[in-house]
Amino acid sequence: MSAVAAAHEKAVEAGLRVMEKGGDACDAAVAVSLALGVAEPFYSGLGGGGVALIWREGEKRARFVDFSNECPLGMEPGIFECDENGKHTGQAHSRGHRSVLIPGLLRGLEAIHREYGRKPWGDLFESAIRLADEGFPVGWFYRRQQEEPRFGTLCENYPELAGIHSASGAPLAKGALLRQPD
Length: 182
Fold this sequence. Notes:
Blueprint: H1 9-20, H2 25-39, E1 50-56, E2 61-67, H3 105-116, H4 126-134, E3 136-137, H5 140-147, H6 149-157, H7 159-165, E4 177-178
Antiparallel strand pairs: 1-2, 3-4
Helix pairs in contact: 1-2, 1-4, 2-3, 2-4, 6-7
């Protein structure tokens, strides 16, 4: 018997599909993470990081894998200006190369797979690729994230971002098919 839990049903399906084809829980976790990057990119994806706690019954111990994001070179304490309430006063925290952390997700997923996975690495990407190519119906959470004021601001500043989420740049209706073949 297999069980998979995730924030999006398409990611759950990706994990179950891997397990039905002989993968283990670690293979499923990798496939789920990759599918979430397509179906819920606002809080998941290749630009992120993570942690994993893995228990292998035969080893009788847990292994903690930390693949958090890292600060870029030149990052120093105090680089972001704040007022007396701790609120950022400049734009250094949201603009420029120092505002972006170095992603750790793919490195971490690869380490988990290398140590514990059974299925070929490429097989774990199949569901995420299919989901991006064929599309999926936009759910309430995706729609809600597109309605956030910060999303509109990001799309104004980076027009190519708007095109990723809809051809017109306008928020997609709940249930609309979102395809990301590129």
